[in-house]
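Before relying on records like the one below, remember that each one covers exactly one chain. Contacts with other chains, cofactors or solvent are not represented anywhere in the record.
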Amino acid sequence: MRAIQIFQTGGPEVLTEVEIPVPQPAPGEIRVKAEAIGVGRPDVLVRKGTYKWMPQLPAIPGSELAGTVDACGDSVPLSFIGKRVLVSARELTVRGGCYAEYICVPAAAIFELPDTISSVDAISLPNFQLANALLMSNGELPVTSVLIPGASGGVASALTQIARARGVRVLGTTSTAEKASYATANGVTDLVTRDPAKLADEVRACTDGRGVDLAFDHLGGDSIIACLRSLAPFGMVVSYNVVTGPPSSDVFQEMRSLLGQSLAVRTFSMHTLDHLPEVRRSLMQTAIQQMSSGRVKAGEAHLLALKDIRAAHALLDAGASIGKIVIQP
């Protein structure tokens, strides 16, 4: 079978197409023939060698795959064969393995897909799973508005839809007119400036001076400070990545300067749920139900072939992609 491996870390050029034997399922495992493979930022971190949970090299990257079960190991009922399923590396011992035409995984790790969700659309489900988890971040406090920088991204798009499905107002930033159009079509109610120096003022102007209840920042740098200044009383910034690096100033001092607001900052990773499988799987089942019922929908995917994997990573490195990049092997 064809697969993509990395033998060393670096730029897109380290992604190597290889021919390796088709894997055979061990006892308790099933084999899935890939129909759609997701390409996302965790894969980029693995490729660069900066992922905190790095697999051992050589490694096959890839965190999500949708396809059909075509073989079962011992002790697995043959009724699994023919089922359409989603494989998420969040359910595996190693975050990776999906850049391949076939993958063997524990039968208990897969998610069965309803007929209403195509394999390509299913690749977006982990983003909706993450969005559901992120929107739980502030506990039981009410949420009427949120701020989402980079609102055209994959996770940001999922966050927008989940928030809108809950009746929450979504303020977002984008970097181009094309991305702005995509974000508003996806449900962003108010586009605000991406300039950190002006962001808080525009957010307050849109919210009658109040600010937002939650801000979801994946950039770091100046962005997380601007998000903090955009919060309503008892508001929270949720930092789920730091693409541009650590905060540009002392976060605690910023919070002390805004003491009357009683603000909070939470760092977030889905790895927190590595040892809470019931919670993690419940969040995915919720995402499947939301998409199956039409409450949320996957955005239009950027479809590429397996041989184009380097180009896919180049798009991510450049921040030039809108929506989810999906490989069709």
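Residues 276 and 282 are 10 Å apart (CA to CA).
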